[in-house]
Write a structure and sequence with these properties.
2 domains, 25 helices, globular
Length: 625
């Protein structure tokens, strides 16, 4: 029976992926076929999930771990896909399969005759594929694979109404926050490699002797890894200071808000903490920080929810507050309560969001006939100055969004001070400098050891400067794209000075960058030949007239940012393996480059292809629905 359970694990990944591929080839005018494919995919997955859970339960609910595919292997490194199934996966599978099936059934009629009908079901199935990769992941590498898919799915669904200004702008904001969470996972994997000298599975984390032995001496490493897990979880689950993105994500269709930001995607930060709990279980400082974070988020989110004027925002902040309580439950060791709380919160928020249009319609009519006087509240017992101050802070959402803006302000200011960097400057200065760096690399045996380390930091800093300039470039899209590509070459040159790095690993990393970078540059060049100058001062909406080109450029952006469609995805992990645990400057510049690199690429795509069309003869919608 155990062999049967192991063999069936793969079908939870294959079914949504096959449904997604089939939905891509269905014509957009075949609504019944499109929705039928999504319906059959989720229904089959739901039935398989329930049958599997019943078999697993009667088998004695064992923890199943299966090493599936080895994507890359060398003498000191192995990148493999690993799947696991236990009670955490069982709960997330039960909730996810049921709610996804419910949303797909609801959306078949809710989105009837919507212009983006095909895009919606394509993205929902793509999201569901990534969701299953995450919940069945048996190691950090597999989890990160699904984590990336969820990030781009969120961006596409929030920007579903891509002809409007606010949905596109808010989608970009949410993707920026998700990118921070992505790099938190990358840094956790980086330090994990130095702690165990291999890719460890979640099953091995349950070995308390192994964990205590590895964390006995370098205790700061364990704290660093735990904090990176927490950063990723907080970003994905909209905990402080990242809470402001969740209400902004409600610009998408109500059904996507229900499945993403009410039930499944927003609870994956909880899943990450549950999965890694055995690692930081005895780190009491980490547990105290998580309790404090969850408590602060619950208090602040609850107060903000009480003054919101829209029902979607109220539900969003209420969900954030409940997730803060779940964080506290996990930190206190109440895993079963946390799982039960997750399921209840997911079902409740999905229901609230699906009925929200009807509730709004009912309340608008009801308020004219029934007056309900204000009831006594806790805030009314406070001194009036404190009460009013708290009320104003809640109205302003405790300035959380401006706080996140201040984080990016130094990068934007630095980029604007680099206006001297133009195409001619890049060619004149960068190419000779890069050639000089390659010469130093070939003769690094004669260089002192500390010089090699300095060169790594210098070259990574040059790449960081280029990606900062790419992020703030406004005049030329081709210039921004070129700087984006060159950043990766400088990163590889910096890592090449690290011990053990081989040229075949550089090829793995740069293969996707070269191919998709060239395709993306060709798209921009062709569009410029058709439309004239392409700037990045605002949204231009060229997807109206160049849909296929927009899709090709989006794929190029994903390839350049290390999305798991190219070997560059594995190359990112290879890069961090060679950064020593004491090279924090190098790790910072490389990690920061990865963060801003992804944000910059999606910014180029958003500014050129999404938003209101630059040509006035196209219909211009209101900024928000």
């Amino acid at each position: 029976m155990n062999d049967l359970l192991i063999n069936l694990l793969q079908f939870f990944i294959i079914i949504p992926f096959a449904g997604y591929i089939v939905s891509l080839v269905v014509p957009s005018n075949k609504e019944d076929t499109l929705s039928g494919v999504a319906f059959l995919t989720t229904a089959l997955h739901l039935v398989l999930a329930w049958v599997y859970i019943i078999l697993w339960f009667f088998e004695g609910h064992p923890t199943i771990d299966h090493k599936d595919i080895v994507l890359f292997k060398s003498l000191d490194y192995e990148f493999f896909i690993d799947f696991t199934f236990d009670r955490i996966t069982a709960v997330y599978l039960f909730v996810g399969s049921f709610l996804t099936f419910l949303i797909v059934t609801y959306s078949r009629y809710y989105l009837h005759r919507e212009a983006g009908y095909k895009r919606f079901f394509n993205t929902i199935l793509f999201f569901y594929f990534g969701y299953n990769l995450v919940i069945f992941s048996g190691n950090l590498e597999t989890l990160f694979l699904g984590w990336e898919i969820l990030g781009i799915s969120s961006f596409l669904l929030i920007a579903f109404y891509r002809e409007r200004y606010l949905p596109v702008k808010n989608a970009f904001k949410v993707f920026s926050i998700y990118r921070i969470g992505d790099v938190g996972l990358i840094l956790a994997m980086w330090m994990s490699h130095h702690l165990w000298h291999k890719n460890i599975t979640f099953l091995q984390l349950n070995n308390s002797e192994l964990i205590s032995e590895q964390l006995a001496a370098p205790s700061w490493i364990g704290l660093f890894i735990s904090m990176m897990f927490l950063v990723s979880a907080a970003a994905k689950s909209a905990q402080l200071p990242f809470s402001s993105w969740l209400p902004r994500a409600m610009e998408g269709p109500t059904t996507s808000s229900a499945i993403f930001y009410g039930s499944l995607s927003v609870h994956l930060g909880v899943f990450l903490l549950l999965r890694t709990y055995p690692f930081w279980e005895y780190q009491y400082a980490t547990r105290a920080i998580i309790v404090l974070l969850g408590f602060s988020t619950s208090i602040i989110a609850t107060s903000i929810a009480r003054v919101q004027s829209t029902i979607k925002s109220q539900v969003a902040y209420s969900s954030i507050a409940q997730i803060g309580l779940i964080f506290i439950e996990i930190a206190c060791g109440f895993e079963n309560i946390a799982l039960f709380h997750f399921a209840g919160n997911a079902f409740l928020r999905t229901y609230q969001l699906l009925v929200s249009p009807s509730v709004v319609s009912y309340l608008i009519r009801e308020q004219f006939f029934n007056f309900i006087p204000r009831t006594h509240t806790f805030e009314g017992t406070l001194p009036k100055k404190i009460e009013y101050s708290f009320y104003i802070l809640s109205l302003k959402e405790f300035n959380l969004e401006s706080l996140m803006y201040r984080v990016w302000r130094p990068f934007k200011k630095t980029g604007r001070n680099l206006n001297f960097i133009r195409t001619k400057t890049v060619v004149t200065l960068s190419i000779p400098a890069y050639i000089a760096g390659i010469v130093c690399l070939f003769y690094k045996e004669i260089l002192p050891f500390h010089v090699e380390e300095y060169l790594s930091v210098v070259f990574s800093f040059v790449g960081f400067v280029m990606v900062i300039k790419s992020y703030t470039e406004r005049k030329s899209a081709k210039m921004s794209w070129l700087l984006l590509i060159m950043n990766h070459f400088w990163i590889i040159l910096a890592i090449a000075f690290c011990e053990g790095f081989r040229m075949d690993q550089a090829f793995i990393y740069l293969s996707g960058i070269i191919v998709f970078g060239s395709v993306g540059y060709g798209c921009l060049h062709w569009l410029k030949s058709k439309e004239g100058a392409i700037h990045l001062n605002g949204f231009q909406g060229h997807v109206y007239e160049y849909r296929n080109l927009a899709l090709l450029f989006l794929i190029s952006c994903l390839g350049v940012t290390g999305f798991p469609i190219t070997p560059t995805f594995i190359g990112e992990d290879l890069v961090f393996i060679h950064i020593k645990d004491y090279q924090f400057a190098l790790a910072f510049f490389v990690a920061a480059s990865f963060v801003i690199d992804g944000i910059s690429a999606i910014r180029i795509y958003s500014r050129i292809f999404l938003g209101p069309h630059i040509k006035m003869y196209h219909e211009t919608p209101f900024k928000s629905s």
